[in-house]
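About this split. The held-out portion is used to measure sequence recovery: a designer receives only the structure tokens and must propose an amino acid at every position. Recovery is the fraction of positions where the proposal matches the reference. Here is one held-out target exactly as it appears in the evaluation file.
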């Protein structure tokens, strides 16, 4: 984190018409600063342009604040917050800063910062919070929408719901409350229905089921008594058989209905009655079993006695208690039915009350939200109408932090930025008028020089045409010589091949002569052996005497022929030897001639290559000169066009002067705050005076455009704004005239 020192306690309080605007590249280096920012910061424009924006960071600002700012900017979000900046002289000033990404052609190219005066309440809160963060760190604090706030349940709730800072959240709350209310009403209704259903089921289980089963039980014992009375009154075999078969079945069914009535549940209030009926039923069941046994055995007298003494008393007691139990069950079912009616009525009352409460709450919340939205829209509409009418002194403020509040704040910043821009345009119009006059004078001078340059280019073009023709002729000659060298190289190559063939032929002749010498040697050997044989034959003929005389004559002839053959072979061998020596000498000469031809071929090939290179170089030189000639021709055409454009520029300068006057009249229609108008007038007049001086020295040099400089991106303290045109530096009001000091170097953009 950059630490700009020294600092002092001299505070600069911004006026209401001070709107500090700056733009940076993606690396945080300043590329534009309006006059108000230059004046308040105490730096010159040249000291600001190209430097990191943290050049004005005050050491009292906690680093986490800028960490949060960078996090939001990298997410393409707008950051707003309270910032304490350092002036060049070590003083400070407080601003409310809004930083947003700058978008051009659909991509992010930098960041724009708009800073306005900070009210006392926000300044006190920010100063206290920043001091505590510096002392204890972020403990007890958190960032909410870029702002440093205290940590706590309320902050957590606001961050989760954003009720006080989001119109979307308010609408979501409205929809959510409506949904919850409908769900609550539906829940109450369903609860009432469930309760009524449970009561009905309870009434059915605890009242109706036992009543039905007990009635069936009573019906069965009544039938049993009727069967017994019929058998006793009219005894017959069929009656006894029928009673013997029917009574056990009726008894079993009666017991089943009784057990089902008991399993349905016995209410505590009816437990005593159930116990009494159960005791009577037990006595009646024992008496009935005894009666069935008596009837089954055919003892009518015993059956009559049991019926009158046991069955009838037990039946009457059971029937009486059973009737009382049934009456109690019916009474309890009636009470359950009344409870169900009461629960339904209570549920209806609760549903109606909840509905009315929710309806009133929604009407109140909707009315409040509508008043909030409509009030803000009316304020924005009034402001837009005043701005449309040219009144830029209109102001709008909002304490809300929801979307409407942020919209009103954004429009307020836009109006203030527009006011500052119009004020700066007023001051720069005079500069444009003076620049247009100088541009016209410069264009006249440039037109004269352009005509001279055009004449020089025409002469140069003529010389280049002659040079082009000469080089082209040289290229043609080199091309012809290269072709002749190629032909000579071909002839030399073919001569070398012929000499090689001769060498091979001489080698073959030498080999043949060697073979002939070998053959002559063989002939000499044969002649020598023949001579030996002839001698041997003569010796044998001498031994034979007269019989061998003829053989001796023949042997002598043979010896003579052998001697002649040997002599001839010796002469031929001598001739062949001499021929072989001559052939070897000729072969050596031919080989030397072949080597010489090979060297000639290589030399001719090198000459051919050199001639080819000369030809290619000549062609390239010819092409290059033609390109130069074309370029000079184009330069001549461009110069002629420039001359025409200079004349048009002179006319455009005159038109620019007229349009500047019209722009002055158009800007004068806007009504600004008095302080702002006076400030921009001073800035404009001074900027015009200082901008005219360098232009007078530079001749026809165009005037600098305010705010058009671009940072060098090096971050050095002395880098200035290399690579761009610095805007004229305005004269600040007396309150903002600090002593200049060198700009600090290094560091990325960390603060505003």
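Reference sequence for scoring:
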């Amino acid at each position: 984190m950059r630490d700009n020192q020294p600092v002092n306690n001299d505070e600069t309080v911004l006026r209401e018409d001070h709107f500090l605007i700056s733009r940076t590249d993606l690396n945080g280096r300043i590329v534009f600063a309006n006059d108000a920012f230059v004046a308040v910061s105490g730096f010159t424009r040249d000291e600001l342009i190209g430097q990191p924006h943290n050049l004005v960071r005050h050491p009292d600002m906690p680093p986490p604040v800028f960490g949060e700012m960078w996090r939001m900017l990298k997410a393409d979000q707008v950051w707003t917050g309270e910032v304490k900046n350092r002036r060049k002289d070590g003083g400070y000033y407080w601003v409310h800063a809004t930083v947003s990404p700058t978008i051009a052609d659909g991509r992010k190219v930098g960041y724009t910062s708009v800073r306005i005066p900070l009210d006392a309440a926000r300044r006190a809160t920010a100063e206290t919070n920043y001091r505590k963060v510096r002392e204890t760190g972020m403990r007890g604090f958190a960032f909410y929408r870029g702002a440093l706030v205290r940590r706590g349940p309320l902050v957590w709730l606001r961050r989760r719901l954003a009720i006080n800072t989001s119109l979307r959240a308010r609408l979501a709350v409205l929809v959510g409350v409506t949904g919850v209310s409908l769900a609550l009403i539906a829940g109450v209704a369903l609860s009432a229905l469930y309760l009524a259903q449970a009561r009905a089921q309870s009434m059915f289980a605890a009242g109706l089921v036992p009543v039905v089963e007990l009635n069936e039980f009573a019906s069965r014992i009544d039938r049993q008594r009727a069967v017994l009375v019929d058998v006793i009154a009219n005894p017959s075999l069929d009656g006894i058989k029928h009673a013997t078969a029917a009574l056990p079945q009726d008894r079993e069914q009666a017991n089943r209905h009784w057990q089902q009535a008991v399993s349905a549940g016995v209410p505590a209030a009816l437990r005593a009655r159930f116990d009494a009926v159960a005791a009577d039923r037990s006595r009646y069941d024992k008496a009935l079993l005894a009666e069935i046994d008596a009837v089954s055995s055919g003892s009518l007298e015993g059956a009559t006695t049991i019926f009158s003494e046991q069955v009838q008393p037990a039946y009457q007691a059971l029937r009486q208690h059973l009737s009382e139990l049934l009456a109690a069950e019916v009474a309890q079912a009636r009470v359950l039915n009344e409870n169900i009616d009461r629960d339904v009525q209570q549920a209806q009352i609760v549903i109606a009350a909840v509905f009315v409460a929710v309806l009133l709450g929604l009407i109140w919340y909707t009315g409040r939200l509508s008043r909030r939205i409509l009030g803000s829209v009316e304020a924005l509409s009034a402001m837009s109408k005043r701005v449309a009418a040219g009144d830029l002194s209109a102001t709008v403020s909002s304490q809300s932090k929801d979307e409407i509040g942020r919209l009103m704040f954004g429009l307020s910043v836009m109006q203030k930025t527009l006011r500052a821009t119009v004020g700066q345009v007023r001051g720069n119009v005079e500069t444009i008028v003076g620049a247009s006059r100088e541009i016209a004078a410069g264009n006249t001078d440039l037109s004269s020089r352009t005509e001279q340059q055009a004449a020089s280019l025409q002469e140069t073009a003529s010389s280049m045409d002659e040079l082009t023709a000469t080089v082209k002729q040289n290229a043609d000659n080199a091309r012809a010589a290269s072709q002749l060298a190629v032909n000579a190289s071909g002839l030399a190559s073919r001569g070398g091949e012929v000499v090689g063939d001769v060498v091979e032929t001489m080698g073959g002749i030498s080999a043949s002569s060697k073979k002939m010498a070998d053959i002559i040697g063989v002939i000499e050997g044969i002649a020598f052996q023949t001579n030996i044989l002839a001698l041997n034959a003569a010796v044998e003929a001498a031994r034979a005497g007269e019989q061998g005389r003829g053989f001796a004559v023949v042997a002598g002839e043979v010896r003579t022929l052998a001697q002649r053959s040997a002599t001839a072979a010796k002469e031929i061998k001598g001739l062949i030897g001499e021929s072989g020596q001559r052939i070897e000498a000729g072969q050596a000469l031919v080989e030397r001639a072949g080597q010489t031809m090979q060297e000639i071929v290589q030399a001719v090939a090198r000459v051919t290559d050199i001639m080819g290179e000369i030809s290619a170089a000549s062609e390239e030189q010819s092409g290059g000169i033609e390109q130069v000639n074309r370029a000079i021709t184009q330069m001549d055409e461009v110069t002629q066009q420039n001359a025409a454009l200079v004349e048009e520029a002179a006319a455009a300068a005159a038109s620019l002067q007229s349009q500047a006057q019209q722009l002055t009249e158009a800007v004068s229609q806007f009504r600004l705050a008095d302080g702002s108008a006076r400030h921009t007038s001073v800035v404009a007049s001074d900027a015009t005076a200082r901008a005219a001086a360098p232009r007078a020295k530079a001749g026809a040099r165009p005037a600098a455009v305010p705010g058009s400089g671009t940072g060098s991106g090096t971050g050095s303290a002395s880098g200035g704004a290399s690579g761009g045109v610095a805007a004229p530096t305005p004269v600040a009001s007396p309150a903002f005239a600090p002593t200049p000091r060198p700009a600090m170097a290094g560091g990325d953009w960390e603060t505003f």
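Annotator remark: Residues 403-544 form the longest helix (142 residues).
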